[in-house]
């Protein structure tokens, strides 16, 4: 994996595993993957890699994964009667017609 393309490695991300396993197991697996990525980043830095580029790539990956989990959580939430948005009509009071 190079700093310019953090997705160059073939390791599965959290989205590949969290849908098929227990949520607690998914969190442990995600933490282990994050730990492994951090250790790999440190190894590259100690071997002479660019500190700024390596840490930026690591933090971008973490942020992208967190944003993806949050987006999936929002999409799983059911719409409520008071929800408004594209394709959702605002709720009206009965008899207000």
Walk me through this protein's architecture.
- The model has no long low-confidence stretch (mean pLDDT 76).
- With 97 residues, this protein is mainly α.
- The protein has a domain at 10-76.
- It contains 3 helices and no strands.
- The longest helix is centred in the middle third of the chain and has 26 residues, at 51-76.
- It starts with 13 loop residues before the first helix and ends in a 21-residue tail after the last helix.
- Helix content is 56%, strand content 0%.
Helices and strands, with pairings:
Layout: H1 14-17, H2 23-46, H3 51-76
Helix pairs in contact: 2-3
In short:
This protein has 97 residues and is mostly helical. 56% of the residues lie in helices and 0% in strands.
Largest sheet: none
What structural class is derived from the secondary structure elements? mainly alpha
Global shape: elongated
Separation of the first and last Cα atoms: 61 Å
Poorly predicted spans: none
Question: What percent of the residues sit in helical stretches (DSSP H or I)?
Answer: 55-70%
Tally of alpha and pi helices: 3
Using only C-alpha atoms, the radius of gyration works out to: 20 Å
**H-E order:** HHH
Total number of beta strands: 0
Percent in strands: under 5%
Average pLDDT across residues? 76
Note the main attributes of this structure:
97 residues; mainly alpha; 3 helices
